């Protein structure tokens, strides 16, 4: 009788057995297709607080009932970062589990009413476009428009467009025209002066922009806090959002990758950097994000820091108690290498209201 657990016998069995593969290849996506993602996720207070605490997002409106009510919420709501990460995490099994580079995300919006614990999240994605990668014949490029909705009402809670490289079943011939070159003779042209806001209220950002106006200056500053990535941020947080990408939990596979190890979920990196930035401002509400890019991997042991540039401010907002500010945030590691960047629009509390 054959002992299938005998190491030599089992090794032969593994060599002969087919692998039941997970995820989809580039050829499986066609423009206009709509993917209904089967997994759902109930957004809980435990999940929300776990995400916020590990990414250093300590805005009291998301923790305390009195602060939430003062902000116009019925109770502490689900944080937009956790909502965004959960929405994307649910899509990974169908869209990007095969791997490939996360090229970017834009038009991140929260068009509905505040989201509270107990909301059941349903997610769907539409294929916006597919394209050949001119520099990587083994990949194609796919963009999806994703919508996270309340399962009970169908109300859209979070939406965005993201673009990934997705592995092909068969490489295609390319001319290599997608590769870019850098002119080393170009030198960066930074402003002569950097202006730092004196505080975190809307008026402080307005005053800093006015100080920088009509001179060679930018309102730009770095944040002191850093967060070193550990087992919780690298492995636990993505799995808690149903993100099954092997990049975050399969050390065996990732040992042969450029990182040499599992890497941090991009939304953990992003949320950590934003948590650093928010700690130096009086955030009222999040409006949206654009032009998000992830520049290099972050692994366990890496430390995520943040740098902020203030782009513009206007007095209009959803409440008279706030104004609207547009930021550019750059996350960087302990070697001062950018790992994430994006523009963010947020309502910031006024001091003098």
From TrEMBL:
InterPro entries xref list: HotDog_dom_sf, MC_hydratase, MC_hydratase_acr, MCH/BMMD
Source taxon at top rank: Archaea
GO molecular function: lyase activity
Region described as Disordered: 1-21, 168-195
Record NCBIfam families: methfumCoahyd_Halo
The protein, known as: L-erythro-3-methylmalyl-CoA dehydratase
Taxonomic classification: Archaea, Methanobacteriati, Methanobacteriota, Stenosarchaea group, Halobacteria
């Amino acid at each position: 009788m054959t002992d299938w657990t005998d190491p030599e016998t089992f090794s032969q069995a593994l060599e002969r057995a087919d692998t039941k593969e997970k995820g989809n290849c580039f050829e499986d996506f066609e423009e206009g297709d709509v993917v209904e993602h089967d997994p759902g996720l109930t957004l809980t207070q435990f999940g929300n607080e776990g995400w916020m605490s590990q990414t250093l997002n300590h805005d009291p409106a998301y923790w305390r009932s009195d602060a939430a009510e003062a902000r116009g919420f019925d109770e502490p709501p689900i944080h937009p970062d956790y909502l965004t990460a959960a929405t994307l995490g649910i899509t990974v099994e169908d869209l990007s589990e095969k791997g490939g580079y996360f090229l970017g995300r834009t038009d991140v919006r929260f068009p509905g009413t505040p989201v509270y614990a107990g909301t059941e999240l349903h997610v769907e994605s539409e294929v916006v476009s597919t394209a050949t990668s001119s520099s990587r014949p083994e990949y194609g490029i796919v963009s999806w428009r994703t919508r996270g909705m309340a399962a009970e009402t169908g109300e859209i809670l979070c939406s965005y467009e993201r673009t990934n490289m997705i592995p092909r079943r068969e490489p295609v011939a390319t001319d290599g025209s997608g590769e870019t070159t850098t002119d080393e003779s170009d030198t960066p042209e930074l402003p002569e002066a950097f202006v730092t806001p004196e505080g975190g209220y809307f008026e402080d950002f307005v005053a800093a922009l006015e100080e920088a106006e009509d001179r060679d200056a930018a309102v730009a500053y770095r944040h002191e806090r850093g967060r070193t990535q550990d087992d919780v941020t690298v492995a636990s947080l993505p799995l808690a959002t149903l993100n099954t990408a092997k990049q975050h939990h399969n050390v065996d596979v990732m040992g042969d990758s450029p990182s040499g190890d599992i890497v941090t979920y991009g939304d953990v990196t992003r949320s950590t950097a934003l948590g650093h930035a928010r700690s130096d401002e009086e955030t009222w509400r999040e409006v949206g994000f654009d032009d998000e890019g992830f520049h290099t991997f972050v692994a366990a042991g890496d430390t995520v820091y943040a740098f902020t540039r203030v782009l513009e401010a206007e007095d209009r907002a959803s409440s008279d108690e706030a104004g609207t500010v547009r930021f550019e945030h750059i996350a960087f590691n302990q070697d001062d290498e950018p790992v994430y960047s994006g523009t963010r629009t947020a309502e910031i509390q006024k001091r003098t209201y």
